[in-house]
Amino acid sequence: MPELPEVEVIARGLHAVLVGRVIAAVEPVDPTRLSEDGAALAAKVVGAGVVRVSRRAKVLLIGLGNGATLAFHLKMTGRVVHGPMRPVERHDRTRFILDDGSLLCFADMRRFGYVRAFAPGGLETWDFLCRVGPEPLDTPPAALAGRVLSRSGRIKALLLDQAVVAGVGNIYADESLHRAGIHPQTRGNRLGRAGAERLFAHLQDVLRQAIAENGSSIRDYVNASGDAGAFQNSFAVYGRKGSPCAVCGAILFAVKVAGRTSTFCPRCQPEP
DNA sequence: CCGCACCCCTGTGCGC
DNA sequence: TGCGCACAGGGGTGCG
């Protein structure tokens, strides 16, 4: 579910309430997707205080005072919610009990997501993050454009490739391509510099707008307090195949690119 | 490097 | 009502 804006909203919400809290205990409710056993995970984090909560690509990071880091990848249906202690629910996977008695719960219906604990210095050696490209909101559109202009792959696939640019998923790829008037099957080396820079400027706009609106909630996404986002009400193309384009009125089409449904307007985004 | 198939899981919505 | 299929915010692998 969560792409960059959703993880960013969760990180900001958690930062506001978790800094200074100490992890008192870990409950590995469903250890099937843990990369280590619950005792090993607990040994790295129990007794440590939260220093900061941040995000890199689509990964949520909780930095601890002992130098360790908790990393959550939410994949399609993961949630990280903080609130009062409550009984275990159906999709709870790993629960953290804090020193004030509150609960930080990682839940994930489909169990694609995971949580990992890194010892001090370990995060920097995590190959997943080492391969991730630049943050789109911290990088000038011209620099981002340079990463796709020499590529022969389809621009939609390039946007989804975390090594090209970090944090973009199916929603924001489709929305930014529509805003830029670019067909998802256009090859990177056919965009032209102006087109590529326009695309990444629109990507920045749509990501910022989605963060401001608390993210997009399709089915599962909720922020750190358990609240839904609102940006799904602003979708121009995502999930709207067969509906009229809000800009020109043409009926929206969908094609598969990189194995993902890509919805586009045949008039605003003409065939390359 | 590119594109595709398939896998990891569970749930929902739709056509028959 | 029930069944079977397609599809879902992600990412990894393996093959041609």
Automatic annotation (TrEMBL):
InterPro entries: DNA_glyclase_Znf_dom_DNA_BS, FPG_cat, FPG_Glyclase, FPG_N, H2TH_FPG, Ribosomal_uS13-like_H2TH, Znf_DNA_glyclase/AP_lyase, Znf_FPG/IleRS
Pfam families per record: Fapy_DNA_glyco, H2TH, zf-FPG_IleRS
Molecular function in Gene Ontology: 8-oxo-7,8-dihydroguanine DNA N-glycosylase activity; class I DNA-(apurinic or apyrimidinic site) endonuclease activity; damaged DNA binding; zinc ion binding
Span of domain Formamidopyrimidine-DNA glycosylase catalytic: 2-113
Cofactor(s) needed by this chain: Zn(2+)
Domain FPG-type as annotated: residue spans: 236-270
Keywords tagged on the record: DNA damage, DNA repair, DNA-binding, Glycosidase, Hydrolase, Lyase, Metal-binding, Multifunctional enzyme, Zinc, Zinc-finger
Enzymatic reactions: Hydrolysis of DNA containing ring-opened 7-methylguanine residues, releasing 2,6-diamino-4-hydroxy-5-(N-methyl)formamidopyrimidine; 2'-deoxyribonucleotide-(2'-deoxyribose 5'-phosphate)-2'-deoxyribonucleotide-DNA = a 3'-end 2'-deoxyribonucleotide-(2,3-dehydro-2,3-deoxyribose 5'-phosphate)-DNA + a 5'-end 5'-phospho-2'-deoxyribonucleoside-DNA + H(+)
Key word Acetylation present: no
Alphabetical list of SMART domains matching this protein: Fapy_DNA_glyco, H2TH
EC number from the UniProt entry: 3.2.2.23, 4.2.99.18
GO BP annotations listed: base-excision repair
Quaternary data: Monomer.
Stored PANTHER family: FORMAMIDOPYRIMIDINE-DNA GLYCOSYLASE
Similarity comment text for this entry: Belongs to the FPG family.
Name of protein: Formamidopyrimidine-DNA glycosylase
